C-alpha cells in the first residue's frame, strides 16, 4: 500500500482510532454521520491535526510518528488539500491561484505560471485564467481549487466534501470533472463525502466511520448492498433492521418477527426499500408475510412520491404515491399498518 496510516487522535471527549491503507491510483471514500471523525481523519493525514499516537507512512516515507517524535511539516508532505469552502486567494487570478501549487514545490514564478497554464488547459479552465475568484460560480471555484491541488503534483490528494456546498447542477458537473481527472491521478486520493452517489461514482473503496471507529469497509457497491449502520442505510434510502435469524425467520427486538427471502442463522441485518412497504389504515389480510402496526410521525416529498415515516415496534420508511396518500387520507399522528413481502427483504450476517 502506498498510504499506510494508523490514525489516533483525541479531541476533548472524542477519540479517533482508524487504520487506512490505499494504493497508488486508488480513491478511498470516508463516509459517516456528522461527528464520526471523517474530517478529523483527513486533517490528521494532511498534518493539520496532530496525532496522539499511530503512524502515517506515504510511499515508505514516515510523515508522522508521535512515539518517535517524527512530524513532517505540512508543506513538506507532498499532499494537496481541497476544502469545502475552497480557500482560493481572492487577490490572485485563477492562473496565479493554480500556480501556487508548483510554487509550493519550489518552482520559480515563470515556471510555475507555465505549469499552471498547462493545467488550466488540461482541466478546461483556460478561459478563466485572468479572472478573480469572486467572479466565478461555486462550481468553477471548486474546479480551480482541485486544479490548484493537482498542479502541485502531490503524492496524496485530500478532498473534504468538495461537492457539498454546490447546487444540484453544479454537483453533477463537478462529479464528472472529478471522475475524469482522478482516473488520471497517479497518487492516492482520500475523499470525505456524505453522498453515497459520490462514493459509488468516484471511489474504489469506502470506509464507514462511526464514533471515531471504522464500522464497515469495502467496495461502494458492497457497502450499498449490505449497509451495517442506520446512517448509511438512510443515505441509501433503505430500511435497516437487526435481529437473530433462524432460517428465513428473523426475531426482532420487542418480540416481533420478520420473514425474509433468504435463509441464515445467527445475528443478521435485514434491509428493504421504502418502495417495498405498503401502508394501510386497517390491518391488511394480504399476501405480505410481514405486517406491523405503527403511527405516522412524518411525511416529506421524495422525488415523485411522499416518504412516510412510521414509528412503532418496527420503525420503517414507506414511499407512497400522492394519489395513494390522498386515498388513504393520511396525516401525521394517524395509526396505520405497514406491510412488506418476504421476497423484498434481504438478510446478511451482522
Précis, in short:
The chain is of the alpha+beta class. The chain has 9 helices and 19 strands. Helix 4 (138-151) runs parallel beside helix 5 (168-184).
Tally of separate helices: 9
Q: Note the run of SSEs as H and E.
A: EEEHEEEEHHHEHEHEEHHEEEEEEHEE
| C-alpha-based Rg, rounded | 24 Å
Total number of strands: 19
Give helix % range. Answer: 25-40%
Q: Sheet bearing the most strands, described?
A: 6 strands, mixed
Overall 3D form: elongated
Looking across the biggest beta sheet, what order are the strands in? 7-8-9-3-10-11
- Class from helix and strand fractions: alpha+beta
Question: What do you see in this structure?
Answer:
The longest helix has 17 residues, at 168-184. 26% of the residues lie in helices and 37% in strands. Helix 2 (94-104) runs parallel beside helix 4, helix 3 (109-122) packs across helix 4 and helix 4 packs parallel to helix 5. It is elongated. With 350 residues, it is of the alpha+beta class. A hairpin with a 2-residue loop joins strand 15 (290-302) and strand 16 (305-311).
Task: Outline the secondary-structure elements.
Elements: E1 3-11, E2 14-22, E3 27-31, H1 38-46, E4 53-58, E5 61-65, E6 70-71, E7 79-82, H2 94-104, H3 109-122, H4 138-151, E8 156-160, H5 168-184, E9 188-192, H6 196-202, E10 205-210, E11 213-218, H7 220-225, H8 230-236, E12 239-252, E13 257-272, E14 277-280, E15 290-302, E16 305-311, E17 316-320, H9 322-328, E18 335-340, E19 346-349
Parallel strand pairs: 3-9, 3-10, 7-8, 8-9
Antiparallel strand pairs: 1-2, 1-4, 4-5, 5-6, 10-11, 12-13, 13-19, 14-18, 15-16, 15-18, 16-17
Helix pairs in contact: 2-3, 2-4, 3-4, 4-5
